[in-house]
């Protein structure tokens, strides 16, 4: 599993291999220059201390080596001038090194953020294709956290794993070369301290890994609570639950805090530990450097050489620390990556399968003994068979919870039946692509979704090529033109979350205009008028009647008066068909339809005087 995750991450980096190679090259050059600036310090200091030229017996290999290259450059100059010239060289090297480091950082950021963008887009795209049930099983906040934070974490694969590891290996190598050229024994002595530090860090980081996972989970929960409660703000107000929600959130925020503090406890320890360790190292080096016998030299190291050795040795601690913590950093990255890949590995049931063709509708849609259940639950539809012929209106009625909406959802393949099948012109729906199938259908349901966009775009959603003239015609047919004209900016008024709020009836008519514009051969109306008052219902019903003309319609209605003229009425109870026929037939037969009808008729009679 772990190897697989790493491979998958690397595959994501692949498109950036050229840029990355370039980044590694600049990193490499910067490290070499870094070694250069360190080494050139020796002659600079020698000229300043006035000890140049007196290459004593016992001079280290590095001193001899550097002198051979720098002395010709400064021969004949006074010690001050020589030092100045070498300092210029040092500064040039320093500037060049930092310019390269800067470039390499920029390149790294480019690659990292490219990786993040690619992965984030993939996850988002995948989410749009997932089974609807997935969104019921998963808290939206956990998904948001996944797309934002966890994806972001995976970018460390570029810094930690590729660039930084490489960079540190180069730095360690060049530094070790410099050190061993000064004194091999002193280098060994210095390195002998490293395992102790690595061991300390490893113990710390092992715990860090565990806590980082828990932190990611808590972070997801916090995001989830915020998004859910923002969506439910009216409910919270209406029931006066503010204080309780606040307290609940506070305790969740505290849990997150605790987890962050716990995680931080271990990661913050690394820095002071290294500092103490470095201090110890400095003392050790100075002490040992002044004892030639101990480090196998004829004379003590010259002060300038000890300075350079110290600087180089201290340069080692940071890369060594990084290399030592590499497994831990990667563990955190992998934990995040696994979370992201988990989402990507959810089967995208919405994807087209081989063998699926384009839908065509000329004759009829037929339900053959259709059975359906959600997940592993009880069947919600049992053995349902009926026909929806072209250019006819079939009404579906029945008590709430009978399975009417579920049945309507099977047509655009929001779900597939678990038994029996649905055919369109004789072809099972499962052999048609969802896309082409949905292009044949328009759905208007009780809860209309408006996007945070203009009236124009809301109506044109799904018909990107529609012209303003067509949109206005659709709005007129939906009885929406008049109220749209009264909006502050007409068709350019922004609706939805942060725009103008519309009444239920107005929203409904926007949805009808949307469906009209698509002009689908099959129309599914799921209680499109149930939530409306009498006046809006009249306006919406008019619009619907226009929409239904000459079209194949499956209409689900709560108010039976609206389905009286249907060509066939199917009565559903607890997932089974318990009656079918025209209004007159069903009315005369008695049964559930008659009972529902009488119930509403009585309600309407008693309600009428009050309304007038
Ligand atoms: N997404 C779902 N997951 C599980 N059960 C569901 C889901 N949607 C609806 N149901 C159940 O299926 C049954 C039929 O619901 P539905 O089709 O909405 O009925 P209707 O539209 O006739 O009121 C109900 O018992 C309901 O609880
Ligand atoms: Mg329903």
Question: Can you tell me about this structure?
Answer:
It is a single chain. The chain has 612 residues and is an alpha/beta fold. It is elongated, with a radius of gyration of 37 Å. The model is unreliable at 607-612 (pLDDT under 50). The strands form 2 sheets. It has a 6-stranded mixed β-sheet with strand order 6-7-8-3-9-10, with helices on both faces. Helices cover 65% and strands 10% of the residues. α2 packs antiparallel against α5 and α5 runs antiparallel to α7 (140-153). It folds into 2 domains: 2-345, Up-down Bundle (ABC transporter transmembrane region fold), CATH 1.20.1560; 364-449 and 510-611, P-loop containing nucleotide triphosphate hydrolases (Rossmann fold). The two termini are 71 Å apart. The longest helix is centred in the first third of the chain and has 49 residues, at 79-127. It has helices spanning 2-13, 17-39, 41-49, 61-74, 79-127, 132-137, 140-153, 156-182, 184-192, 194-231, 233-238, 242-289, 292-295, 303-345, 404-410, 434-439, 455-460, 468-477, 481-486, 504-518, 534-548, 583-589, 591-611; strands at residues 364-373, 379-389, 393-397, 419-424, 427-428, 441-445, 522-526, 552-556, 568-573, 576-581. The protein is built from 23 helices and 10 strands. Adenosine-5'-diphosphate binds next to α15.
């Amino acid at each position: 599993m772990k190897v697989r995750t790493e491979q998958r991450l690397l595959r994501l980096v692949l498109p950036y291999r050229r840029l990355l190679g370039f980044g590694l090259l600049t990193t490499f050059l910067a490290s070499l220059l870094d070694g250069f600036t360190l080494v050139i310090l020796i002659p600079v200091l020698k000229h300043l201390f006035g000890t140049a030229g007196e290459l004593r017996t016992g001079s280290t290999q590095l001193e001899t080596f550097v002198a051979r290259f720098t002395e010709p450059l400064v021969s004949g100059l006074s010690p001050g001038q020589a030092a100045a010239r070498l300092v210029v060289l040092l500064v040039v090297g320093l500037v060049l090194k930092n310019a390269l480091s800067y470039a390499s950082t920029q390149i790294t950021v480019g690659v990292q953020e490219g990786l993040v963008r690619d992965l984030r887009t993939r996850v988002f795209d995948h989410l749009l294709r997932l089974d609807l049930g997935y969104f019921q099983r998963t808290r939206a906040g956990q998904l948001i956290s996944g797309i934002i934070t966890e994806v972001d974490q995976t970018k460390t694969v570029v810094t930690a794993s590729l660039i930084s590891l490489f960079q540190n290996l180069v730095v360690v190598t060049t530094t070790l070369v410099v050190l061993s050229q000064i004194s091999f024994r002193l280098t060994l002595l210095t390195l002998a301290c490293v395992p102790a530090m690595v061991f300390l860090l490893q113990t710390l980081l092992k715990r860090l890994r565990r806590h980082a996972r828990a932190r990611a989970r808590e972070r997801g929960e916090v995001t989830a609570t915020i998004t859910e409660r923002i969506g439910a703000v009216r409910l919270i107000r209406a029931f006066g639950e503010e204080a309780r929600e606040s307290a609940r959130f506070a305790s969740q925020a505290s849990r997150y805090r605790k987890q962050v503090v716990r995680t931080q406890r271990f990661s913050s320890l690394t820095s002071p530990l290294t500092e103490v360790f470095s201090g110890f190292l400095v003392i050790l080096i100075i002490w040992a450097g002044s004892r030639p016998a101990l480090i196998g030299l004829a004379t003590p190291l010259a002060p300038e050489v000890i300075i350079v050795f110290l600087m180089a040795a201290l340069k080692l601690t940071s890369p060594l620390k990084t290399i030592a913590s590499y497994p831990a950093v990667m563990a955190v990255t992998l934990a995040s990556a696994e979370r992201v890949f988990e989402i990507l590995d959810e089967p995208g049931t919405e994807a087209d399968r081989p063998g699926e063709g384009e839908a065509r509708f000329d004759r009829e849609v037929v339900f053959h003994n259709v059975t359906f259940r959600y997940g592993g639950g009880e069947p919600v539809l049992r053995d349902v068979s009926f026909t929806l012929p072209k250019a006819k209106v079939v009404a579906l009625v029945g008590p709430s919870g009978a399975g009417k909406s579920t049945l309507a959802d099977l047509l655009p393949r929001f779900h597939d039946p678990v038994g029996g099948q649905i055919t369109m012109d004789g072809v099972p729906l499962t052999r048609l692509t969802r896309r082409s199938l949905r292009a044949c259908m328009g759905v208007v349901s009780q809860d209309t979704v408006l996007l945070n966009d203009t009236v124009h775009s809301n109506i044109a959603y799904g018909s990107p090529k529609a012209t303003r003239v067509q949109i206005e015609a659709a709005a007129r047919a939906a009885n929406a033109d008049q109220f749209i004209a009264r909006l502050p900016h007409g068709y350019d008024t922004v609706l939805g979350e942060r725009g103008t709020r519309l009444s239920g009836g107005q929203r409904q008519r926007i949805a009808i205009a949307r469906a009209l514009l698509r002009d689908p051969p099959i129309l599914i109306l799921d209680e499109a008028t149930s939530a409306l008052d009498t006046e809006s219902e009249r306006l919406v019903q008019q619009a619907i009647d226009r929409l239904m003309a000459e079209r194949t319609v499956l209409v689900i209605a709560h108010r039976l008066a609206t389905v009286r003229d249907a060509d066939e009425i199917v009565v559903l109870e607890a997932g089974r068909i318990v009656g079918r026929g025209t209004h007159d037939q069903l009315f005369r037969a008695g049964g559930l339809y008659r009972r529902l009808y009488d119930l509403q008729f009585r309600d309407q009679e008693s309600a009428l005087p009050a309304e007038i």
